[in-house]
Design a protein that fits this description.
two-stranded antiparallel sheet; Arc Repressor Mutant, subunit A; alpha+beta; elongated; single chain; Transposase
Length: about 120
């Protein structure tokens, strides 16, 4: 913490630590497990996926991780469109997100899934 123009200023690192230590529950609860495809449900509840209300993941990235998961488990993966439908059925919001940019001029808005994150190992 430091003092700047009459106010206390915290660094981003301490702010991130404060968010981790906060008492508020950011866990996301999955809905409609019985209606969704079992491969998508198993993927969402795998060890590499974190369900948190503060997280976003680009749709292309999460679908590629889903394909890798299916090939590792010897399952037949769904198409991108069916995967999107099942993710929305489970409650993950599919939306345009300005944080993810693609292209040379970085002006293209891509889509992302809200409330889900990938744990890197």
């Amino acid at each position: 913490m430091s003092w700047y123009r009459g106010r206390y200023v915290t660094s981003k690192r301490t702010l991130a630590q404060w968010m981790v230590d906060s008492k508020k529950d950011y866990h996301f609860r999955v809905r409609n497990k019985d209606k969704a495809d079992p491969t998508v449900v198993n993927f969402v509840f795998s060890d590499n996926i974190k369900k948190d209300r503060r997280l976003y993941v680009a749709s292309r990235v999460i679908y590629n991780h889903y394909l890798d998961y299916c090939y590792q488990q010897d399952l037949t993966p769904l198409s991108n469109r069916q995967f999107k439908h099942n993710m929305e059925l489970l409650g993950f919001v599919y939306q345009k997100h300005h944080r993810f940019y693609a292209g040379y001029y970085q002006n293209k808005v891509t889509t992302a899934y809200k409330n889900i994150g990938i744990i890197k190992r």
